[in-house]
Each structure stands twice: as structure tokens, then as C-alpha cells.
């Protein structure tokens, strides 16, 4: 069963992630989708959950007030989801452009070396990837950490991990760029991204409608196979570079 509720007090995507996270922890709640612009929460339940129980989940944050909303038909929710599914290119344009920029710039740099070396190009690509993505996360570190805690298996249990993770990406990007201890850098990359992809896979396979935190709090990107490809690419590249160096 699915119900829609009004939620007041949400002013940014950080608020959106916080409310979504709190409501998702209520027993019986299967999935929570927040429409920030309309101030609404659409909640899918395994069993009926009383409105009072949902309000209790928000009690530590009194600025968020939840109330019943019976006027919005579920067909409208389906219509919104259908419209969103048709605009895949528009939805993922930011991340596709970033990948294109990183690939284009690093290919150009490699082309200027006289001979194309795949390992060197991957090293530059990963430097660009981590530096670009850490930049967007650091624009609103709190918003990223709250969104990340919605699905990452570590951040769910330890909220500080979201804050640390952004700086880990920055450090990895700097290490790849400067060529600092590439064996250690690739080992850390492989482990960190392997842990990261677990939560992404769980969310996508369970078809949860969750905001992807890969570009921080700047763009509202839904979790999808794009996120799996993004993490998988870093795992694959770091693994290949390790095999080549060891």
C-alpha cells in the first residue's frame, strides 16, 4: 500500500534527505519518496503504518511536521514517475557531461605524450574523476553526508563517514594526479569503491527511489544503474592498475 503525506519545514535537499532517512527507519515502511517542491512524502508500506508513528519518527526535528494528504490520487504519482522515466537523458545530463569532460581532457593529455599508454591514461582519468566528484560533494558537505547516509552501508551506521568520504575522494584524486604511492592509492580506491557499490546495488535492486549523492547536493540525480557503472568503473580501473603494478 502507498500513501501520500504533507510534510512542512523542508527547505533544501538536505532536509529532503533527512526526512526521507527518518521515515525510512519506521517499521513497515518499504520505500519513501520526497517531493521537495510540493512538500509531500509518498510512502510505500509492507503493512499499514499509523500516521502517529510517522510523526514520532520526526519528533526530534520539530520543524518537520507531517500530516495526512488524501486528495492526491496514486495515479498522479505514477504519472510523475512515468514522466521522469522518459527524460533519462535530461536527468543524467550533468553526470554524462562530467564523464565526457574528464575522458576528453585526459585523452587529449595522453595524446600529447607521443605514445598512448593505457595505464597512464587510467591514472589521469581517475585523478579527474575523484577531483571533480569531491568538488561537488564539498560544495555542500552536510547535504551530501545526509543523502549518502540514505543508502551507503557504512554511512547508515556511522554518519561521520559521509563527511570523511568526500575528503577521501579529494585525497585519492590528488594522489593519482601527483603519482603518489600508486600501489597504496589503488588499493585504497579498490576497497573504498567496493564498499560503496554494495549500498548502491542494494538500493537499485530493491528499486528504492533514492537520490544519488555522487554529485553531492548540487544535482538531484536518482539512484540507478548509472551509479553502479560509475562505481564499477573505478573498481575495474584500480584493479587493472594493481595487476599491472604487482
Would you kindly provide a written description of the structure presented here, covering whatever features stand out?
This protein is of the alpha+beta class and 246 residues long. It folds into two domains: 2-85, Alpha-Beta Plaits; 88-245, no CATH class. The protein is 61% helix and 11% strand. The chain contains ten helices and six strands, in the order E-H-E-E-H-E-H-H-H-H-H-H-H-E-E-H. It has helices at 13-24, 51-57, 74-86, 88-91, 93-111, 118-139, 141-148, 160-178, 182-205, 225-245, and strands at 2-8, 29-35, 40-45, 65-68, 211-212, 221-222. The strands form two sheets. Strands 2-3-1-4 form a four-stranded antiparallel sheet, with helices on one face. Strand 5 and strand 6 (221-222) form a beta hairpin.
Strands, total number: 6
Shape: elongated
The termini sit apart by 53 Å
Report low-confidence residues grouped into runs of 5 or more: 71-85
- Rg over CA atoms: 20 Å
Given helix and strand content, the structural type is: alpha+beta
- Name the beta content range: 5-15%
Helix percent band? 55-70%
SSE diagram, text form:
Elements: E1 2-8, H1 13-24, E2 29-35, E3 40-45, H2 51-57, E4 65-68, H3 74-86, H4 88-91, H5 93-111, H6 118-139, H7 141-148, H8 160-178, H9 182-205, E5 211-212, E6 221-222, H10 225-245
Antiparallel strand pairs: 1-3, 1-4, 2-3, 5-6
Helix pairs in contact: 1-7, 5-6, 6-8, 6-10, 7-8, 9-10
Amino acid at each position: 500500500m502507498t500513501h501520500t503525506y504533507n510534510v512542512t519545514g523542508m527547505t533544501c535537499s538536505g532536509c529532503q534527505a533527512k526526512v526521507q532517512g527518518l521515515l525510512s527507519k519506521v517499521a513497515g515502511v518499504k520505500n519513501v519518496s520526497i517531493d521537495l517542491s510540493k512538500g509531500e512524502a509518498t510512502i510505500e508500506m509492507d503493512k499499514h503504518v499509523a500516521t502517529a508513528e510517522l510523526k514520532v519518527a520526526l519528533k526530534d526535528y520539530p520543524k518537520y511536521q507531517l500530516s495526512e494528504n488524501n486528495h492526491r490520487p496514486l495515479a498522479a504519482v505514477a504519472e510523475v514517475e512515468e514522466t521522469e522515466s522518459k527524460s533519462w537523458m535530461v536527468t543524467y545530463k550533468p553526470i554524462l557531461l562530467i564523464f565526457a569532460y574528464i575522458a576528453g581532457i585526459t585523452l587529449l593529455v595522453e595524446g600529447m605524450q607521443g605514445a598512448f599508454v593505457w595505464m597512464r591514461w587510467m591514472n589521469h582519468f581517475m585523478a579527474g574523476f575523484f577531483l571533480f566528484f569531491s568538488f561537488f560533494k564539498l560544495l555542500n558537505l552536510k547535504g551530501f553526508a545526509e543523502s549518502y547516509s540514505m543508502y551507503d552501508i557504512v554511512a547508515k551506521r556511522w554518519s561521520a563517514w559521509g563527511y570523511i568520504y568526500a575528503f577521501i575522494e579529494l585525497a585519492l584524486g590528488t594522489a593519482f594526479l601527483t603519482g603518489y604511492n600508486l600501489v597504496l592509492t589503488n588499493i585504497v580506491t579498490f576497497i573504498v569503491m567496493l564498499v560503496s557499490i554494495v549500498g548502491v546495488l542494494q538500493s537499485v535492486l530493491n528499486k528504492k527511489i533514492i537520490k544519488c549523492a555522487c554529485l553531492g547536493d548540487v544535482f538531484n540525480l536518482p539512484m540507478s544503474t548509472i551509479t553502479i557503472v560509475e562505481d564499477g568503473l573505478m573498481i575495474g580501473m584500480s584493479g587493472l592498475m594493481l595487476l599491472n603494478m604487482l
